[in-house]
Design brief:
With 304 residues, the protein is mostly helical. The protein folds into two domains: 94 residues, DNA polymerase, domain 1; 181 residues, Intergrase catalytic core (hpI Integrase, Chain A). Helices cover 57% and strands 4% of the residues. It contains 13 helices and three strands; from the N terminus they run αααααααβββαααααα. The protein has a three-stranded antiparallel β-sheet, with no helix packed on it. A hairpin with a 5-residue loop joins strand 2 and strand 3. Helix 1 packs antiparallel against helix 2, helix 6 packs antiparallel against helix 8 and helix 12 crosses helix 13. The N and C termini lie far apart (57 Å). The relative contact order is 0.09.
């Protein structure tokens, strides 16, 4: 937790640091989320200080005035309110604070955007584009195959340890959000390419670097990063004629989910595969599938 520890200089700073440490220990939130919560609370604290108030003496009117004076996007507002709600809920629970100034705070309405998915033919063209005659091409093909076959998040893919792959059972054990592990099946085609990478490419990439833990290695022998994989996905997309702005590693995950639903997959099974904690998160893909059917109807039906 070294990267989320700072030196506190005021009473509010100390309260914020205790809060950050507590939710890190209890919920295992990502460092980026913790840093955003810290930043939101510090900005509120500095604003309150200019009005002669503190986090502990702030009331509902203070928070309303703060929101009115600090215009941000709807998404940033939602994150900011989440930080404030959790902070004051913890203060009420731990310190017996009687008033929670966030209780009647109106939640912002988040715009509902649908995940963008590629057509199956586009995914196929993207996946087969690496030159498998080279070690890096073998690695890239294996990574693309595995991500689309198993619907992994990009962080799950690049953080996947060699020990997380079970070729005999055809599954990978991935660590998702909140440090939760899940077993995800790997398709035969993807497994074949991962095994080819393990035989023909990874030993050369790992040579001279001890025994790297990561399954997928860079040309330097260390673990691939999110940025590296993002770059190669964009490069292969352009190579096969797909606009780079339409493609990202997460689009492959969206495509995995959408294509499974299009072929009749059960929604709860898909929830387990994706590692969603709530079914409502998975249900958005049913809307993507319906939109795809509408476009198909409009394009091909004589009265579409």
């Amino acid at each position: 937790m070294s990267d989320i520890e700072t030196v506190s200089s005021t009473a509010d700073d100390r309260l914020i640091e205790r809060f950050i440490e507590r939710i890190w220990a209890e919920d295992g939130l990502a460092d980026r989320t913790l840093e955003a919560y810290r930043r939101d609370l510090r900005q509120l604290s500095r604003w309150l200080e200019s009005r002669g108030r503190t986090l502990d003496t702030a009331g509902r009117d203070d928070l309303s005035a703060y929101h009115g004076s600090q215009p941000v996007s709807v998404r940033s507002m939602a994150r900011r309110q989440s930080a404030f709600r959790r902070f004051y809920a913890q203060r009420a629970r731990d310190e017996g604070r009687k008033e929670d100034p966030t209780l009647l705070m109106q939640r912002p309405r988040m715009p509902r955007g649908l995940p963008k998915a590629l057509a199956e033919r586009e995914v196929e063209a993207l996946i087969v584009s690496p030159d498998v005659a080279t070690p890096l091409g073998l690695r890239d093909r294996a990574m693309l195959e595995l991500m689309y076959s198993s619907g992994l998040r990009v962080s799950e893919l690049v953080d996947l340890p060699l020990a997380g792959l079970n070729t005999r059972q055809g599954v990978v054990r991935v660590t998702g959000k909140g440090g939760k592990d899940r077993l995800v099946p790997v398709g035969e085609e993807a497994l074949a390419h991962v095994e080819a990478y393990l035989r023909e490419a990874r030993p050369g990439l790992a040579k001279g670097h001890g025994q790297p833990v990561a399954l997928f290695l860079s040309r330097r022998g260390d673990a691939m990063t999110r940025q590296m994989f993002w770059t190669l996905v964009k490069r292969y997309a352009v190579q096969v004629g797909i606009p780079a702005k339409r493609v990202s590693p997460h689009v492959l995950r969206h495509s995995f989910a959408t294509h499974l639903l299009n072929h009749g997959a059960d929604l709860r099974a898909l929830q387990m595969l994706l590692g969603h904690s709530a079914l409502s998160t998975t249900q958005i893909y049913t809307l993507v599938a319906k939109e795809g059917l509408k476009r198909l109807h409009a394009q091909h039906h004589p009265r579409g």
